[in-house]
Amino acid sequence: MCGIVGYIGPKQAAGFLLEGLSKLEYRGYDSAGIAVFDGEKINVTKTVGRLAVLKDQLKNNMPQGQIGIGHTRWATHGRPSDVNSHPHTDCTGNFVVVHNGIIENYLDLKEKLIEKGHVFVSETDTEVVAHLLEEYYDGDFEGAVKKVLAAIEGSYSLVFMTKFDPDKIICSKKDNPLVIGLGQGENFIASDIPAIINYTRRTYILSDGEMAVVTKDSVWVMNRQGVPVSKKVFEVNWDAEAAEKGGYEHFMIKEIYEQPKVIRETMSGRLAKDNSEIIFDELKWTKEDLVGIKKILITACGTAYHAGFVAKYFIEQLARIPVEVDIASEFRYRTPLVDESTLAIVISQSGETIDTLAALKEAKRLGARTLAVTNVVGSSIAREADHVIYTWAGPEIAVASTKAYTTQLVSVFMLALYLAGLKEAIAPERMKELVAGLKNLPAQAHEVLDDVEPIKTFAEKYGFSEDVFFIGRSLDYAVALEGALKLKEISYIHAEAYAAGELKHGTLALIIEGVPVIALATQSDVYDKTLSNIKEVKARDAVVIGIGFVGDKQLEKYVDHTILIPRTEKYLAPILSVIPLQLLAYYAAITRGCDVDKPRNLAKSVTVE
Ligand code: F6R
């Protein structure tokens, strides 16, 4: 999730590059850089830190030239540092590239390039692209880029420049955005529209697999086979603020809709092609590494805690290791029983939550081995933990966490499978089924997002309710907790989640005529029991919205409305069933006129106790 810009025309490129990047800082801000061709050589300036640091470095030394590319980074492969910042160059500095996305086969490619004598300076996946370009270049820039695109696997928007063909920039994309802004005698490239709307509103939006050759007077777009594509000009009529949100009204809804993409990115390079295993290059554990681990302790706050709650089911059921889950602010003050036989896992989107950080330090102090699941490379939690698994959700801006949660679930599920594989606690065939299930998730998440109209209708109908209850058993209960938190934090409706089997022990007293109850019923092993609980609340005249799998006729019989998600493995159901709950919370908040992205009294990152 980085920001990309490019310029070719009669003006000094650096001006546009820096201004464009400032409009894209919301996409990533751990480092920034630009490359400008001055007529003789390509000058690259890049630095760790926010764009302001780069601007400061360039203040008295602005690179001169009318063609250039730039980047603002959100680290995935390689921590934020000067050398890991983009643009990346080949061995000679004659080829430069900026990239957004993940090159899945970069380790293979890197090894081969090193054998051929290429010298790498960064830890990034992107650097292989620059060296590949150098390797393939034989006087034909376009031809070399085509070869590079054929060699790489993964997701990308890529922009290439070389001193040998200084009248063109070439770019291409797959699963990441890229737009070309059409000017008069000048053209612009950007990962997102905000970067260019002060310059032009006429754009080409590139589709997956397309490659564009951009000069100052022309833009040639072709498909993977090199066949010219005739593009329609897309006139942007968004204002600057809407453009930043990709045309969505709020960051939260934009982030909800990003989920298929970020789920795919979080799995990228981590699932074996033949589905036989999970690959965590960042862990590289062996069976021996687990010797002596008697329990796993998971600590986190808020939504991340709910992800931990789901992780407990995953790890206990698949890897057969006992798991304790604790709220970080409780854990740190309860003189916990933790020692060298504990693997302590903390989950945190920001990597900065003070209680989670303190819990991590406490677990470490007590001798535990530690692992962080976080979204921010180089964050305090990432630095403190012995091991890190990154969720590749990109920057999450809305206060209410959505895409971070689903990528946390994907990460902890992969971790559970990884541990199960190491412990040989799972049959190879079952592993294959579950990995195949993971691979289907992005498309299935799309399907859920395509079916939003009924959810909007429920939100309008029940958006002014005083109380809403969420019930479910097993993993459905864990998702119910997250659904209730989403609803209360952005719509301010009083919402509670209950393990459906607990209703009789008190909560049933609150179920009266017309109270909305969201009942999750995706877990086959407790399905009948959940139906009985649904009947209990129906008998008290609650209005029940049932969430189940497509084709569940039984559920339809007992509830007032259904929201049906595509069928998947029971473990993966939470990753899909939470999406309608996020949408419900969002549209309920809209119905009530709440400030969705900045709910009252809440902050995105809680760095004080
Ligand atoms: C809720 C939400 C919070 C965070 C919590 C932990 O939507 O976003 O509950 O999940 O503050 O934050 P991180 O994950 O950054 O540690």
Q: How are the secondary structure elements laid out?
A:
Layout: E1 3-8, H1 13-23, E2 31-37, E3 42-48, H2 51-58, E4 67-73, E5 88-89, E6 95-103, H3 106-115, H4 127-136, H5 141-151, E7 154-162, E8 169-174, E9 179-182, E10 187-190, E11 202-205, E12 211-214, E13 219-222, E14 234-235, H6 240-244, H7 251-257, H8 259-267, E15 295-300, H9 302-319, E16 323-327, H10 328-331, E17 342-348, H11 354-365, E18 369-374, H12 380-384, E19 387-390, H13 403-422, H14 428-450, H15 453-462, E20 467-472, H16 475-491, E21 494-499, E22 516-520, H17 527-539, E23 543-549, H18 553-558, E24 561-565, H19 573-591
Parallel strand pairs: 15-16, 15-17, 17-18, 18-19, 20-21, 20-22, 22-23, 23-24
Antiparallel strand pairs: 1-4, 1-10, 2-3, 2-4, 5-6, 6-7, 7-8, 8-12, 9-10, 9-11, 11-14, 12-13
Helix pairs in contact: 3-4, 4-5, 8-13, 8-14, 9-13, 9-16, 13-14, 13-19, 14-19, 15-19, 16-19
The chain binds fructose -6-phosphate.
Descriptive key words:
609 residues; alpha/beta; Glutamine Phosphoribosylpyrophosphate, subunit 1, domain 1; Rossmann fold; 3 domains; eight-stranded antiparallel sheet; 19 helices; 24 strands; binds fructose -6-phosphate
Tell me what you see in this structure:
With 609 residues, this protein is an alpha/beta fold. The chain folds into 3 domains: 3-244, Aminohydrolase, N-terminal nucleophile (Ntn) domain (Glutamine Phosphoribosylpyrophosphate, subunit 1, domain 1, 4-Layer Sandwich), CATH 3.60.20.10; 253-447, Glucose-6-phosphate isomerase like protein, domain 1 (Rossmann fold), CATH 3.40.50; 451-591, Rossmann fold (3-Layer(aba) Sandwich). 36% of the residues lie in helices and 22% in strands. It has 19 helices and 24 strands. An 8-stranded antiparallel sheet has the order 3-2-4-1-10-9-11-14, with helices on one face. It has a 6-stranded antiparallel sheet with strand order 5-6-7-8-12-13. α8 (259-267) runs antiparallel to α14, α9 packs parallel to α13 (403-422) and α13 (403-422) packs antiparallel against α19 (573-591). The two termini are 30 Å apart. The model has no long low-confidence stretch (mean pLDDT 94). The protein binds fructose -6-phosphate. Fructose -6-phosphate binds at residues 301-304, 348-350, 353, 356, 400-401, 485, 489, 605-606.
